[in-house]
Amino acid sequence: ALTAGIVGLPNVGKSTLFNAITQAGAESANYPFCTIDPNVGIVEVPDHRLQKLTELVNPPKKTIPTAFEFTDIAGIVKGASKGEGLGNKFLSHIRQVDAICHVVRCFQDDNITHVSGKVDPISDIETINLELILADLETVLKRIQRVEKLTRQKDKEAMAEFEVLSKLRDAFEEEIPARAVEFTEDQQKLVKGFHLLTSKSVLYVANVGEDELLDIDNNKYVQLVKEFAEKDEAKFIVISAKVESEIAELDGEEKAMFLEELGIAQSGLDQLIQATYQLLGFATYFTAGEQEVRAWTFKKGIKAPQAAGIIHTDFEKGFIRAETVSYEDLVEAGSEQAAKEKGKVRLEGKDYLVKDGDVMHFRFNV
Ligand code: GDP
């Protein structure tokens, strides 16, 4: 399954946020393909379209939102890439995630120790980023050693790789992450193959105190993180992990009331889920039958057979066609039958690029 990793220095609020995620958590019986691990929390992606589709199908037995995973990656401290703290065990965990959610402490609380003595979000961010860059530098230097020999024999592929590696090394030495280095399309393919930590998309999550949520424009820490994110080709959101842990304990109606009291439209967790979803280039397609109405996550750019494969590998192997209607057309028509009569249901083949909001019915050979 698709996953995002939560990183940050100790005592910034990672566990508080992660516990809120698992508590608000999805019903795992619906997601048998997800990992069972205490450090992994499954979240449902809120999507108002699912409700509407459920009404149209009057009524399906089940409605199942799409979900993805958050992994709690503890253990990054200064020197971690050289084996300090929990050592570099975290590196292998980060390699496995699709995106990084970097939690940054923006709350002031003298009772809670800050690892470096004072609240300083930019220095915190740089500490973590430096560890990731150092780990990548090591990866790149090792590869350079191997490739250099081949370049002396004028091996074309090796020379192309050497050029990319050198550019990365220079960037890392200036503490620039791989995602901020410009490459041609061909070079990007090479970079992808190196599985670098700093190639991954990053979302900075500014964690503010519970009484600060409504006044973030005056929070100088938040503003600093925001500016940093803009420079760093990264996205940024503000949450209060403390508040999220309180929200996670409430049910639907209580939750709505509490949010209204706080004066916010959407819980931080829902914002986090949606921001991560966008960051990763994820989109949603739907299946809608009498058994269930269900949302499925896919990565933009895939074609109909791969989308079918997300449900079951047999659907991909035996793919014939996908009956497809856009969510908007279906809702406007009012029913699948009406959409068909209006000619809005298309028969798409194996080259069809799946779009966000497609409602699909796959035909396949077994
Ligand atoms: P981690 O080490 O990054 O996982 O941090 P924790 O989630 O364990 O949080 C460290 C401490 O900070 C805990 O005592 C939390 O209750 C506290 N904490 C987390 N978020 C907030 C917040 O927004 N405001 C305040 N005052 N304390 C917080």
From TrEMBL:
Keywords: ATP-binding, Magnesium, Metal-binding, Nucleotide-binding. InterPro entries: ATPase_YchF/OLA1, Beta-grasp_dom_sf, G_OBG, GTP-bd, P-loop_NTPase, TGS, TGS-like, TGS-like_dom_sf. Residues 281-364 form the TGS domain. GO terms for cellular component: cytoplasm. Its cofactor is Mg(2+). Residues 2-259 form the OBG-type G domain. ATP binds at N11, V12, G13, K14, S15, T16. Belongs to the TRAFAC class OBG-HflX-like GTPase superfamily. OBG GTPase family. YchF/OLA1 subfamily. ATPase that binds to both the 70S ribosome and the 50S ribosomal subunit in a nucleotide-independent manner. This is Ribosome-binding ATPase YchF.
